[in-house]
Amino acid sequence: MTVPGPRNDFQLLKTQVRTATDAAHGSADLSKRMETQQVNIYYGKRHAVQDVSIPFYKNLITAIIGPSGCGKSTLLRAMNRMNDAIPGYRIEGQVLLDGQEIHTPGTDVITLRRRVGMVFQQPNPFPKSIYDNVAFGLRVNGLVKSRAELDGRVEKALRGAALWDEVKDRLNRNALQLSGGEQQRVCIARALAVQPELLLMDEPASALDPVSTAKIEELMFELKKDYTIVIVTHNMQQAARVSDFTAFLLSGQLIEFNPTPQLFTRPADPRTEAYITGRFG
Amino acid sequence: MKSRFTDKIFVFLCLFAVLVVIAMLAAVLGNITYHGWDRLSWEFISASPTHGMTEGGIFPAIYGTVLLVLLMAIFVVPLGVCVAIYFSEYADRSSRLYRWTRAAVDNLAGVPSIVFGLFGLGFFVQFVGGGVDQVFFGGNLTFRQPAILWASLTMAVLTLPVVIISVEETLRAVPQSFRDASYALGATKSQTIFRVVLPNAMSGVLTGGILAVSRGAGEVAPILFVGAAYFLPHLPTKLNDQFMQLGYHVFVLSTQSPDVEATKPLLYSTVFVLLALTFLLNLVAVAIRARLRVTAGSGR
User: Fold this and answer.
1) Are residues B114 and B223 in the same domain?
2) Whole-angstrom Cα distance, residue B51 to residue B198?
3) Predicted ipTM?
4) B138 touches A: beta carbon within 8 Å
5) How do residues A84-116 score in pLDDT, each as one tens digit?
6) Which CATH number is B127's domain given?
7) pLDDT given for residue B230 in this prediction
Protein backbone atom coordinates (compact mmCIF):
# COMPACT_ATOMS: atom_id res chain seq x y z
CA MET A 1 0.00 0.00 0.00
CA THR A 2 1.23 3.46 -0.78
CA VAL A 3 0.69 6.30 1.54
CA PRO A 4 1.55 9.46 -0.37
CA GLY A 5 4.11 11.97 0.69
CA PRO A 6 2.17 15.18 0.48
CA ARG A 7 4.89 17.04 -1.44
CA ASN A 8 4.82 14.65 -4.40
CA ASP A 9 1.10 14.69 -4.62
CA PHE A 10 0.69 18.39 -4.73
CA GLN A 11 0.83 18.77 -8.50
CA LEU A 12 -1.69 16.03 -9.02
CA LEU A 13 -3.86 17.41 -6.35
CA LYS A 14 -3.94 20.86 -7.86
CA THR A 15 -5.46 19.56 -11.06
CA GLN A 16 -8.09 17.77 -9.14
CA VAL A 17 -9.09 20.14 -6.42
CA ARG A 18 -11.41 22.50 -8.21
CA THR A 19 -12.31 24.62 -5.30
CA ALA A 20 -9.32 26.41 -3.96
CA THR A 21 -8.75 25.35 -0.42
CA ASP A 22 -6.31 26.76 2.03
CA ALA A 23 -4.58 23.46 2.15
CA ALA A 24 -4.07 23.34 -1.57
CA HIS A 25 -2.97 26.96 -1.72
CA GLY A 26 -0.58 26.80 1.16
CA SER A 27 2.64 25.02 0.69
CA ALA A 28 2.29 21.30 0.94
CA ASP A 29 0.42 21.09 4.21
CA LEU A 30 -2.56 18.93 4.02
CA SER A 31 -3.88 18.94 7.52
CA LYS A 32 -5.64 15.85 8.77
CA ARG A 33 -9.09 16.36 10.16
CA MET A 34 -9.60 12.72 10.92
CA GLU A 35 -7.49 9.63 10.73
CA THR A 36 -7.66 5.90 11.25
CA GLN A 37 -4.52 4.18 12.48
CA GLN A 38 -4.20 0.42 12.21
CA VAL A 39 -7.90 -0.02 12.73
CA ASN A 40 -9.18 -3.57 13.11
CA ILE A 41 -12.88 -4.24 13.37
CA TYR A 42 -14.48 -7.53 14.34
CA TYR A 43 -18.06 -8.73 14.28
CA GLY A 44 -17.78 -11.66 16.65
CA LYS A 45 -15.16 -13.84 14.98
CA ARG A 46 -15.37 -12.11 11.60
CA HIS A 47 -12.47 -9.77 10.94
CA ALA A 48 -14.30 -7.14 8.88
CA VAL A 49 -11.63 -4.42 8.72
CA GLN A 50 -7.96 -5.28 8.93
CA ASP A 51 -5.22 -2.93 9.92
CA VAL A 52 -6.53 0.04 7.97
CA SER A 53 -4.79 3.43 8.20
CA ILE A 54 -6.29 6.29 6.21
CA PRO A 55 -5.90 10.05 6.67
CA PHE A 56 -8.86 12.28 5.91
CA TYR A 57 -7.65 15.73 4.93
CA LYS A 58 -9.39 18.93 5.83
CA ASN A 59 -11.72 20.41 3.21
CA LEU A 60 -11.11 17.60 0.81
CA ILE A 61 -13.26 14.72 -0.30
CA THR A 62 -11.95 11.25 0.38
CA ALA A 63 -13.68 8.34 -1.34
CA ILE A 64 -13.63 4.81 -0.02
CA ILE A 65 -14.30 2.33 -2.79
CA GLY A 66 -14.40 -1.43 -3.00
CA PRO A 67 -16.73 -4.32 -3.76
CA SER A 68 -19.74 -5.13 -1.56
CA GLY A 69 -18.75 -6.53 1.80
CA CYS A 70 -15.23 -5.13 1.73
CA GLY A 71 -15.78 -3.30 5.00
CA LYS A 72 -16.09 0.23 3.63
CA SER A 73 -19.39 1.04 5.30
CA THR A 74 -18.24 -0.58 8.53
CA LEU A 75 -15.18 1.63 8.54
CA LEU A 76 -17.26 4.72 7.80
CA ARG A 77 -19.72 3.94 10.56
CA ALA A 78 -16.84 3.44 12.98
CA MET A 79 -15.92 7.10 12.47
CA ASN A 80 -18.98 8.35 14.36
CA ARG A 81 -19.41 5.17 16.38
CA MET A 82 -22.67 4.13 14.77
CA ASN A 83 -21.61 0.48 15.09
CA ASP A 84 -21.40 0.57 18.88
CA ALA A 85 -24.82 -0.99 19.41
CA ILE A 86 -24.19 -3.97 17.13
CA PRO A 87 -23.77 -7.15 19.20
CA GLY A 88 -20.31 -8.69 18.86
CA TYR A 89 -18.81 -5.48 17.44
CA ARG A 90 -15.24 -4.76 18.52
CA ILE A 91 -12.73 -2.21 17.29
CA GLU A 92 -8.97 -1.99 17.82
CA GLY A 93 -6.50 0.65 16.76
CA GLN A 94 -7.05 4.37 16.72
CA VAL A 95 -9.61 6.64 15.18
CA LEU A 96 -8.50 10.23 15.66
CA LEU A 97 -10.60 13.35 15.25
CA ASP A 98 -8.36 16.43 15.34
CA GLY A 99 -5.77 14.21 16.98
CA GLN A 100 -8.12 12.98 19.70
CA GLU A 101 -9.00 9.31 20.00
CA ILE A 102 -12.78 8.91 19.75
CA HIS A 103 -13.01 5.58 21.54
CA THR A 104 -11.70 6.63 24.94
CA PRO A 105 -14.13 6.00 27.77
CA GLY A 106 -14.43 9.74 28.31
CA THR A 107 -15.58 10.44 24.75
CA ASP A 108 -19.06 11.88 24.58
CA VAL A 109 -20.68 10.00 21.70
CA ILE A 110 -23.39 12.64 21.40
CA THR A 111 -20.85 15.40 20.84
CA LEU A 112 -18.84 13.19 18.51
CA ARG A 113 -21.87 12.60 16.31
CA ARG A 114 -22.64 16.27 16.26
CA ARG A 115 -19.11 16.96 15.00
CA VAL A 116 -19.16 14.06 12.56
CA GLY A 117 -22.41 14.13 10.61
CA MET A 118 -23.74 11.31 8.51
CA VAL A 119 -25.83 10.86 5.39
CA PHE A 120 -27.19 7.40 4.66
CA GLN A 121 -27.64 5.31 1.57
CA GLN A 122 -31.42 5.37 1.55
CA PRO A 123 -32.87 8.86 1.96
CA ASN A 124 -34.33 8.56 5.46
CA PRO A 125 -36.16 11.76 6.35
CA PHE A 126 -38.43 11.47 9.36
CA PRO A 127 -42.14 11.44 8.48
CA LYS A 128 -42.35 15.02 9.68
CA SER A 129 -42.33 18.37 7.91
CA ILE A 130 -39.26 19.52 6.03
CA TYR A 131 -38.72 22.16 8.69
CA ASP A 132 -38.96 19.70 11.59
CA ASN A 133 -36.56 17.35 9.86
CA VAL A 134 -33.87 20.00 9.52
CA ALA A 135 -34.56 21.37 13.00
CA PHE A 136 -34.36 17.94 14.66
CA GLY A 137 -30.65 17.94 15.50
CA LEU A 138 -30.78 21.54 16.72
CA ARG A 139 -33.71 20.76 18.98
CA VAL A 140 -32.47 17.54 20.54
CA ASN A 141 -29.11 19.11 21.23
CA GLY A 142 -30.66 22.29 22.57
CA LEU A 143 -28.52 24.38 20.23
CA VAL A 144 -30.92 27.24 19.66
CA LYS A 145 -32.58 29.62 22.06
CA SER A 146 -35.33 31.21 20.04
CA ARG A 147 -37.68 30.41 17.22
CA ALA A 148 -36.07 33.13 15.12
CA GLU A 149 -32.65 31.60 15.60
CA LEU A 150 -34.04 28.20 14.70
CA ASP A 151 -35.64 29.63 11.55
CA GLY A 152 -32.30 31.12 10.57
CA ARG A 153 -30.35 27.93 11.13
CA VAL A 154 -32.91 25.86 9.20
CA GLU A 155 -32.75 28.27 6.27
CA LYS A 156 -28.96 28.27 6.32
CA ALA A 157 -28.84 24.47 6.33
CA LEU A 158 -31.35 24.21 3.49
CA ARG A 159 -29.35 26.78 1.51
CA GLY A 160 -26.23 24.76 2.22
CA ALA A 161 -27.93 21.71 0.75
CA ALA A 162 -29.04 23.76 -2.30
CA LEU A 163 -32.65 23.09 -1.46
CA TRP A 164 -33.91 26.37 -0.03
CA ASP A 165 -35.30 27.83 -3.24
CA GLU A 166 -37.14 24.64 -4.03
CA VAL A 167 -38.83 24.19 -0.67
CA LYS A 168 -39.00 27.61 0.99
CA ASP A 169 -42.72 27.90 0.28
CA ARG A 170 -43.59 24.46 1.60
CA LEU A 171 -41.48 23.99 4.70
CA ASN A 172 -44.47 22.55 6.54
CA ARG A 173 -45.07 19.83 3.98
CA ASN A 174 -44.21 16.28 4.93
CA ALA A 175 -40.68 15.52 3.74
CA LEU A 176 -41.83 12.15 2.43
CA GLN A 177 -43.79 13.93 -0.30
CA LEU A 178 -40.55 15.14 -1.89
CA SER A 179 -38.73 13.27 -4.63
CA GLY A 180 -35.93 10.87 -3.70
CA GLY A 181 -33.23 13.38 -4.63
CA GLU A 182 -34.91 16.14 -2.66
CA GLN A 183 -35.34 13.82 0.30
CA GLN A 184 -31.64 13.05 0.26
CA ARG A 185 -30.86 16.77 0.23
CA VAL A 186 -33.21 17.23 3.20
CA CYS A 187 -31.10 14.60 4.94
CA ILE A 188 -27.94 16.49 4.00
CA ALA A 189 -29.48 19.74 5.26
CA ARG A 190 -30.47 17.95 8.46
CA ALA A 191 -26.88 16.82 8.95
CA LEU A 192 -25.52 20.31 8.11
CA ALA A 193 -27.85 22.06 10.53
CA VAL A 194 -25.86 21.02 13.60
CA GLN A 195 -22.72 22.37 11.89
CA PRO A 196 -20.51 19.29 11.88
CA GLU A 197 -16.86 19.40 10.93
CA LEU A 198 -16.99 16.22 8.94
CA LEU A 199 -19.65 14.73 6.75
CA LEU A 200 -19.73 10.97 6.30
CA MET A 201 -21.71 9.91 3.24
CA ASP A 202 -22.60 6.25 2.87
CA GLU A 203 -23.40 5.76 -0.84
CA PRO A 204 -25.54 8.89 -0.76
CA ALA A 205 -26.60 8.65 -4.39
CA SER A 206 -26.99 4.93 -4.92
CA ALA A 207 -30.76 5.09 -4.57
CA LEU A 208 -31.13 8.13 -6.82
CA ASP A 209 -31.61 8.75 -10.53
CA PRO A 210 -28.74 10.26 -12.61
CA VAL A 211 -30.06 13.83 -12.48
CA SER A 212 -30.44 13.77 -8.69
CA THR A 213 -27.03 12.09 -8.44
CA ALA A 214 -25.45 14.91 -10.45
CA LYS A 215 -27.04 17.44 -8.10
CA ILE A 216 -25.68 15.68 -5.03
CA GLU A 217 -22.21 15.55 -6.57
CA GLU A 218 -22.35 19.22 -7.47
CA LEU A 219 -23.40 19.93 -3.93
CA MET A 220 -20.42 18.03 -2.58
CA PHE A 221 -18.06 20.39 -4.41
CA GLU A 222 -19.78 23.31 -2.73
CA LEU A 223 -19.77 21.64 0.67
CA LYS A 224 -16.08 20.91 0.79
CA LYS A 225 -15.33 24.61 1.17
CA ASP A 226 -16.66 24.26 4.69
CA TYR A 227 -16.58 20.56 5.45
CA THR A 228 -14.34 17.57 5.25
CA ILE A 229 -16.17 14.85 3.38
CA VAL A 230 -15.76 11.11 3.39
CA ILE A 231 -17.84 9.24 0.84
CA VAL A 232 -18.31 5.52 0.55
CA THR A 233 -19.32 4.47 -2.92
CA HIS A 234 -19.29 1.43 -5.13
CA ASN A 235 -19.66 3.68 -8.14
CA MET A 236 -16.12 4.23 -9.40
CA GLN A 237 -17.05 7.00 -11.83
CA GLN A 238 -18.54 8.86 -8.90
CA ALA A 239 -15.38 8.44 -6.84
CA ALA A 240 -13.30 9.62 -9.80
CA ARG A 241 -15.56 12.64 -10.36
CA VAL A 242 -15.94 13.98 -6.86
CA SER A 243 -13.04 12.89 -4.69
CA ASP A 244 -9.55 14.22 -4.09
CA PHE A 245 -8.20 11.08 -2.49
CA THR A 246 -9.38 7.53 -2.91
CA ALA A 247 -8.93 4.52 -0.70
CA PHE A 248 -9.48 1.09 -2.20
CA LEU A 249 -10.56 -1.61 0.21
CA LEU A 250 -10.71 -5.31 -0.56
CA SER A 251 -11.77 -8.01 1.91
CA GLY A 252 -11.27 -5.63 4.80
CA GLN A 253 -7.76 -4.62 3.79
CA LEU A 254 -6.60 -1.29 2.47
CA ILE A 255 -5.05 -2.09 -0.90
CA GLU A 256 -4.22 1.42 -2.00
CA PHE A 257 -4.64 5.00 -0.86
CA ASN A 258 -3.64 7.71 -3.32
CA PRO A 259 -4.76 10.95 -4.88
CA THR A 260 -7.77 10.10 -6.99
CA PRO A 261 -6.30 10.91 -10.45
CA GLN A 262 -3.30 8.76 -9.68
CA LEU A 263 -5.30 5.85 -8.34
CA PHE A 264 -7.52 5.80 -11.37
CA THR A 265 -4.84 6.35 -14.02
CA ARG A 266 -1.71 4.79 -12.58
CA PRO A 267 -2.82 2.43 -9.83
CA ALA A 268 0.08 1.21 -7.74
CA ASP A 269 -1.39 -2.19 -7.03
CA PRO A 270 -2.47 -4.74 -9.66
CA ARG A 271 -5.58 -5.51 -7.61
CA THR A 272 -6.64 -1.86 -7.80
CA GLU A 273 -6.17 -1.95 -11.53
CA ALA A 274 -8.18 -5.13 -11.81
CA TYR A 275 -11.00 -3.57 -9.82
CA ILE A 276 -11.17 -0.22 -11.57
CA THR A 277 -11.01 -1.81 -14.99
CA GLY A 278 -13.98 -3.93 -14.02
CA ARG A 279 -12.40 -7.33 -13.86
CA PHE A 280 -14.17 -8.07 -10.56
CA GLY A 281 -16.37 -6.41 -8.03
CA MET B 1 -57.66 -36.42 -13.60
CA LYS B 2 -58.05 -37.60 -10.06
CA SER B 3 -55.98 -34.75 -8.64
CA ARG B 4 -58.25 -32.20 -10.28
CA PHE B 5 -61.26 -33.79 -8.70
CA THR B 6 -59.76 -33.73 -5.18
CA ASP B 7 -58.76 -30.16 -5.81
CA LYS B 8 -62.37 -29.25 -6.53
CA ILE B 9 -63.58 -31.04 -3.43
CA PHE B 10 -61.07 -29.18 -1.33
CA VAL B 11 -62.14 -25.81 -2.72
CA PHE B 12 -65.75 -26.74 -2.09
CA LEU B 13 -65.00 -27.71 1.53
CA CYS B 14 -63.18 -24.45 2.14
CA LEU B 15 -66.07 -22.45 0.68
CA PHE B 16 -68.49 -24.42 2.79
CA ALA B 17 -66.50 -23.67 5.94
CA VAL B 18 -66.53 -19.96 5.07
CA LEU B 19 -70.27 -20.09 4.55
CA VAL B 20 -70.77 -21.75 7.93
CA VAL B 21 -68.92 -18.91 9.62
CA ILE B 22 -70.89 -16.27 7.79
CA ALA B 23 -74.16 -18.07 8.50
CA MET B 24 -73.42 -18.26 12.22
CA LEU B 25 -72.62 -14.59 12.45
CA ALA B 26 -75.69 -13.72 10.39
CA ALA B 27 -77.88 -15.92 12.61
CA VAL B 28 -76.63 -14.26 15.78
CA LEU B 29 -76.90 -10.73 14.43
CA GLY B 30 -80.20 -11.39 12.67
CA ASN B 31 -81.81 -12.97 15.68
CA ILE B 32 -80.73 -10.20 18.01
CA THR B 33 -81.69 -7.43 15.62
CA TYR B 34 -85.05 -9.03 14.89
CA HIS B 35 -85.99 -9.43 18.54
CA GLY B 36 -84.23 -6.39 19.90
CA TRP B 37 -85.15 -3.75 17.36
CA ASP B 38 -88.68 -3.04 18.63
CA ARG B 39 -87.62 -1.96 22.08
CA LEU B 40 -84.80 0.24 20.87
CA SER B 41 -85.59 3.88 21.38
CA TRP B 42 -84.02 7.00 22.72
CA GLU B 43 -85.75 6.31 26.00
CA PHE B 44 -84.25 2.83 26.19
CA ILE B 45 -80.75 4.25 25.83
CA SER B 46 -81.26 7.25 28.09
CA ALA B 47 -83.43 5.99 30.95
CA SER B 48 -82.90 3.83 34.02
CA PRO B 49 -84.47 0.41 34.50
CA THR B 50 -87.82 0.47 36.27
CA HIS B 51 -90.39 -2.02 37.55
CA GLY B 52 -87.88 -4.67 38.56
CA MET B 53 -86.01 -4.34 35.26
CA THR B 54 -89.05 -5.18 33.15
CA GLU B 55 -89.47 -1.60 31.96
CA GLY B 56 -87.30 1.43 31.33
CA GLY B 57 -83.86 1.65 29.81
CA ILE B 58 -80.24 0.78 30.32
CA PHE B 59 -78.53 4.13 30.60
CA PRO B 60 -76.73 3.37 33.88
CA ALA B 61 -75.25 0.23 32.33
CA ILE B 62 -74.01 2.11 29.27
CA TYR B 63 -72.60 4.85 31.49
CA GLY B 64 -70.90 2.32 33.76
CA THR B 65 -69.41 0.44 30.81
CA VAL B 66 -67.99 3.58 29.25
CA LEU B 67 -66.61 4.83 32.56
CA LEU B 68 -65.11 1.42 33.32
CA VAL B 69 -63.26 1.13 30.01
CA LEU B 70 -62.10 4.75 30.09
CA LEU B 71 -60.58 4.33 33.54
CA MET B 72 -59.11 1.04 32.42
CA ALA B 73 -57.53 2.70 29.36
CA ILE B 74 -55.97 5.38 31.58
CA PHE B 75 -54.25 2.62 33.56
CA VAL B 76 -53.44 0.14 30.85
CA VAL B 77 -52.18 2.30 27.96
CA PRO B 78 -49.26 4.04 29.70
CA LEU B 79 -48.25 0.84 31.46
CA GLY B 80 -48.51 -1.22 28.28
CA VAL B 81 -46.56 1.36 26.27
CA CYS B 82 -43.75 1.36 28.85
CA VAL B 83 -43.51 -2.43 28.83
CA ALA B 84 -43.56 -2.47 25.01
CA ILE B 85 -40.78 0.15 24.89
CA TYR B 86 -38.73 -1.94 27.28
CA PHE B 87 -39.27 -5.10 25.21
CA SER B 88 -38.63 -3.48 21.87
CA GLU B 89 -35.96 -0.89 22.64
CA TYR B 90 -34.07 -1.80 25.79
CA ALA B 91 -34.33 -5.49 26.58
CA ASP B 92 -31.42 -7.74 25.76
CA ARG B 93 -33.29 -10.55 24.07
CA SER B 94 -31.00 -13.21 25.44
CA SER B 95 -31.27 -12.01 29.01
CA ARG B 96 -33.16 -13.98 31.64
CA LEU B 97 -35.19 -10.93 32.66
CA TYR B 98 -36.47 -10.52 29.12
CA ARG B 99 -37.36 -14.19 28.73
CA TRP B 100 -39.21 -14.26 32.03
CA THR B 101 -41.18 -11.06 31.50
CA ARG B 102 -41.95 -12.17 27.96
CA ALA B 103 -43.29 -15.50 29.21
CA ALA B 104 -45.25 -13.67 31.91
CA VAL B 105 -46.98 -11.45 29.36
CA ASP B 106 -47.74 -14.38 27.04
CA ASN B 107 -49.19 -16.40 29.89
CA LEU B 108 -51.17 -13.44 31.20
CA ALA B 109 -52.99 -13.44 27.86
CA GLY B 110 -53.97 -17.07 28.41
CA VAL B 111 -55.36 -16.79 31.93
CA PRO B 112 -59.15 -17.39 32.07
CA SER B 113 -60.95 -14.16 32.78
CA ILE B 114 -62.76 -15.46 35.89
CA VAL B 115 -59.32 -15.92 37.46
CA PHE B 116 -58.70 -12.21 36.96
CA GLY B 117 -61.95 -11.59 38.79
CA LEU B 118 -60.81 -13.59 41.78
CA PHE B 119 -57.38 -11.99 41.61
CA GLY B 120 -58.99 -8.55 41.58
CA LEU B 121 -61.04 -9.43 44.64
CA GLY B 122 -58.11 -10.86 46.55
CA PHE B 123 -55.45 -8.38 45.52
CA PHE B 124 -57.10 -5.06 44.72
CA VAL B 125 -60.17 -5.13 46.95
CA GLN B 126 -58.87 -7.01 49.99
CA PHE B 127 -55.16 -6.29 49.95
CA VAL B 128 -54.77 -2.88 48.30
CA GLY B 129 -58.18 -1.56 49.34
CA GLY B 130 -57.73 -2.90 52.86
CA GLY B 131 -54.28 -1.30 53.04
CA VAL B 132 -55.61 2.05 51.85
CA ASP B 133 -58.36 1.94 54.47
CA GLN B 134 -55.85 1.13 57.21
CA VAL B 135 -53.45 3.88 56.25
CA PHE B 136 -55.74 6.71 55.12
CA PHE B 137 -59.13 6.07 56.64
CA GLY B 138 -58.29 4.71 60.08
CA GLY B 139 -59.69 1.30 59.28
CA ASN B 140 -63.11 2.63 58.21
CA LEU B 141 -64.53 0.69 55.31
CA THR B 142 -63.98 2.96 52.32
CA PHE B 143 -61.98 1.26 49.61
CA ARG B 144 -62.04 -2.33 50.87
CA GLN B 145 -65.17 -3.07 48.88
CA PRO B 146 -66.09 -3.70 45.27
CA ALA B 147 -65.67 -0.45 43.33
CA ILE B 148 -65.23 0.88 39.84
CA LEU B 149 -61.59 1.67 40.61
CA TRP B 150 -60.80 -1.96 41.39
CA ALA B 151 -62.87 -3.19 38.46
CA SER B 152 -61.03 -0.98 36.01
CA LEU B 153 -57.65 -2.00 37.47
CA THR B 154 -58.62 -5.67 37.20
CA MET B 155 -59.71 -5.10 33.62
CA ALA B 156 -56.42 -3.27 32.95
CA VAL B 157 -54.45 -6.34 34.05
CA LEU B 158 -56.62 -8.48 31.79
CA THR B 159 -56.09 -6.28 28.71
CA LEU B 160 -52.43 -5.49 29.36
CA PRO B 161 -51.12 -8.16 26.95
CA VAL B 162 -53.34 -6.80 24.16
CA VAL B 163 -51.79 -3.35 24.49
CA ILE B 164 -48.22 -4.61 24.93
CA ILE B 165 -48.33 -6.84 21.88
CA SER B 166 -49.97 -4.25 19.64
CA VAL B 167 -47.58 -1.46 20.64
CA GLU B 168 -44.49 -3.65 20.55
CA GLU B 169 -45.32 -4.81 17.05
CA THR B 170 -45.53 -1.26 15.72
CA LEU B 171 -42.42 -0.17 17.62
CA ARG B 172 -40.45 -2.95 15.97
CA ALA B 173 -41.87 -1.96 12.59
CA VAL B 174 -40.37 1.55 12.85
CA PRO B 175 -37.49 1.43 10.35
CA GLN B 176 -33.99 1.19 11.76
CA SER B 177 -33.05 3.99 9.35
CA PHE B 178 -35.09 6.46 11.44
CA ARG B 179 -33.21 5.47 14.57
CA ASP B 180 -29.87 5.67 12.73
CA ALA B 181 -30.71 9.14 11.45
CA SER B 182 -31.65 10.28 14.93
CA TYR B 183 -28.51 8.88 16.57
CA ALA B 184 -26.34 10.34 13.80
CA LEU B 185 -27.71 13.79 14.68
CA GLY B 186 -26.56 13.45 18.25
CA ALA B 187 -29.86 12.38 19.82
CA THR B 188 -29.74 10.21 22.92
CA LYS B 189 -31.57 6.91 23.12
CA SER B 190 -34.50 8.31 25.07
CA GLN B 191 -34.76 11.31 22.71
CA THR B 192 -34.79 8.88 19.80
CA ILE B 193 -37.52 6.82 21.40
CA PHE B 194 -39.76 9.72 22.38
CA ARG B 195 -39.23 11.95 19.35
CA VAL B 196 -38.84 9.46 16.54
CA VAL B 197 -39.82 5.90 17.40
CA LEU B 198 -42.93 6.43 19.53
CA PRO B 199 -44.53 9.11 17.28
CA ASN B 200 -44.14 6.65 14.42
CA ALA B 201 -45.84 3.97 16.47
CA MET B 202 -48.88 6.05 17.50
CA SER B 203 -51.13 3.90 15.33
CA GLY B 204 -50.14 0.88 17.43
CA VAL B 205 -50.70 2.77 20.68
CA LEU B 206 -54.18 3.87 19.61
CA THR B 207 -55.10 0.52 18.13
CA GLY B 208 -53.87 -1.27 21.23
CA GLY B 209 -55.87 1.07 23.42
CA ILE B 210 -59.05 0.62 21.43
CA LEU B 211 -58.64 -3.15 21.17
CA ALA B 212 -58.25 -3.22 24.95
CA VAL B 213 -61.34 -1.05 25.34
CA SER B 214 -63.42 -3.21 23.04
CA ARG B 215 -62.22 -6.34 24.85
CA GLY B 216 -62.92 -4.74 28.21
CA ALA B 217 -66.39 -3.61 27.18
CA GLY B 218 -67.38 -7.18 26.46
CA GLU B 219 -65.91 -8.96 29.50
CA VAL B 220 -68.10 -9.82 32.47
CA ALA B 221 -66.30 -12.44 34.52
CA PRO B 222 -63.46 -10.19 35.76
CA ILE B 223 -65.85 -7.65 37.27
CA LEU B 224 -68.33 -10.06 38.86
CA PHE B 225 -66.74 -9.77 42.29
CA VAL B 226 -65.04 -6.41 42.15
CA GLY B 227 -67.65 -3.77 41.47
CA ALA B 228 -70.45 -4.63 39.05
CA ALA B 229 -73.85 -4.09 40.63
CA TYR B 230 -77.20 -5.73 40.03
CA PHE B 231 -79.04 -2.47 40.19
CA LEU B 232 -78.12 1.01 41.37
CA PRO B 233 -80.46 3.95 41.79
CA HIS B 234 -77.59 6.42 41.22
CA LEU B 235 -74.79 6.71 38.72
CA PRO B 236 -71.29 6.17 40.12
CA THR B 237 -69.63 9.47 41.03
CA LYS B 238 -66.66 8.39 43.15
CA LEU B 239 -63.86 5.95 42.50
CA ASN B 240 -65.13 3.65 45.25
CA ASP B 241 -68.70 3.53 43.96
CA GLN B 242 -70.12 0.41 42.40
CA PHE B 243 -71.49 0.56 38.87
CA MET B 244 -73.75 -1.17 36.39
CA GLN B 245 -72.28 -2.63 33.23
CA LEU B 246 -73.82 -3.82 29.96
CA GLY B 247 -72.39 -7.34 29.93
CA TYR B 248 -73.29 -7.88 33.55
CA HIS B 249 -76.70 -6.40 32.91
CA VAL B 250 -77.25 -9.03 30.20
CA PHE B 251 -76.32 -11.69 32.72
CA VAL B 252 -78.66 -10.18 35.30
CA LEU B 253 -81.58 -9.85 32.89
CA SER B 254 -81.27 -13.39 31.64
CA THR B 255 -80.73 -15.21 34.93
CA GLN B 256 -81.43 -13.03 37.94
CA SER B 257 -84.59 -11.26 36.94
CA PRO B 258 -87.75 -11.94 38.94
CA ASP B 259 -89.68 -12.33 35.70
CA VAL B 260 -87.46 -13.74 32.96
CA GLU B 261 -90.17 -13.77 30.29
CA ALA B 262 -91.00 -10.12 30.85
CA THR B 263 -87.38 -9.03 30.52
CA LYS B 264 -86.71 -10.94 27.30
CA PRO B 265 -87.36 -8.05 24.88
CA LEU B 266 -85.17 -5.83 27.02
CA LEU B 267 -82.50 -8.49 27.02
CA TYR B 268 -82.35 -8.62 23.24
CA SER B 269 -82.12 -4.87 22.96
CA THR B 270 -79.39 -4.73 25.60
CA VAL B 271 -77.35 -7.32 23.73
CA PHE B 272 -77.87 -5.31 20.57
CA VAL B 273 -76.51 -2.17 22.21
CA LEU B 274 -73.53 -4.08 23.63
CA LEU B 275 -72.70 -5.53 20.22
CA ALA B 276 -73.13 -2.19 18.50
CA LEU B 277 -70.81 -0.54 21.03
CA THR B 278 -67.98 -3.06 20.59
CA PHE B 279 -68.38 -3.08 16.81
CA LEU B 280 -68.23 0.67 16.79
CA LEU B 281 -65.04 0.66 18.87
CA ASN B 282 -63.42 -1.86 16.53
CA LEU B 283 -64.43 0.26 13.55
CA VAL B 284 -62.87 3.31 15.13
CA ALA B 285 -59.66 1.32 15.71
CA VAL B 286 -59.52 0.26 12.07
CA ALA B 287 -60.23 3.80 10.86
CA ILE B 288 -57.55 5.36 13.05
CA ARG B 289 -55.01 2.81 11.93
CA ALA B 290 -55.79 3.41 8.26
CA ARG B 291 -55.61 7.16 8.72
CA LEU B 292 -52.30 7.12 10.54
CA ARG B 293 -50.84 4.83 7.92
CA VAL B 294 -51.63 7.43 5.27
CA THR B 295 -50.19 10.40 7.14
CA ALA B 296 -47.11 8.64 8.48
CA GLY B 297 -46.19 7.02 5.20
CA SER B 298 -44.03 3.97 4.98
CA GLY B 299 -40.72 5.71 5.54
CA ARG B 300 -39.23 4.53 2.29
Assistant:
1) yes
2) 51
3) 0.84
4) no
5) 888 899 999 999 999 999 999 888 999 999 999
6) 1.10.3720.10
7) 82
